[in-house]
Amino acid sequence: MEDKDNFAIYFVVVPCAVLALLIHPSTTHHIFNRLCWAFCVYLEAVSVLPQLRVMQNTKIVEPFTAHYVFALGVARFLSCAHWILQVLETRGRLLTALGYGLWPPMVLFSEIVQTFILADFCYYYVKSVVGGQLVLRLPSGVV
């Protein structure tokens, strides 16, 4: 399986760290706390990429892994929908409660990115379940 895990993790961690240094909350908390929070938000948005890469390389996904990633995708979609609805319901006041500058929109953008990353997998999962397949087979273009 190690030959299938060819995702260089620094391609995910380093950009998230740089982005956290550039765009982080403008709250009264200590700068270290704000940087960690931003790094966490950005890293969480792309944390599933290595797993998706392994599944893409193997082409066949075990049922328990497929169920987990699908459940994660549904949870991320619902979380994203929740935040978008909260922003609409408060007429944008929620964004100002998170601070000012680029941080509030980046939090929302991170939710959207994570949702779209998992949406492609969820599509193939549903297609597989509807087709009655126990094992999910991914095309080479996923991820």
Write a concise keyword list for the protein shown above.
single chain; two-stranded antiparallel ribbon; mainly alpha; 2 strands; 143 residues
Describe this structure in words.
The chain has 143 residues and is mainly α. It has helices at 10-22, 31-46, 49-58, 63-89, 93-97, 103-130; strands at 60-61, 136-137. It has a two-stranded antiparallel ribbon with strand order 1-2.
User: Structural class of the helices, strands and pairings?
Assistant: mainly alpha
The biggest sheet amounts to: 2 strands, antiparallel
Strands of the biggest beta sheet: in what spatial order?
A: 1-2
Strand content: under 5%
- Tally of structural domains: 1
What is the succession of H and E elements? HHHEHHHE
Shape: flat
Give the rounded overall mean pLDDT: 86
Spans of 5+ residues with little confidence (pLDDT < 50)? none
GO molecular function: ER retention sequence binding
Pfam families: ER_lumen_recept
Protein name: ER lumen protein-retaining receptor
Family: Belongs to the ERD2 family.
SSE diagram, text form:
Layout: H1 10-22, H2 31-46, H3 49-58, E1 60-61, H4 63-89, H5 93-97, H6 103-130, E2 136-137
Antiparallel strand pairs: 1-2
Helix pairs in contact: 1-2, 2-6, 4-6
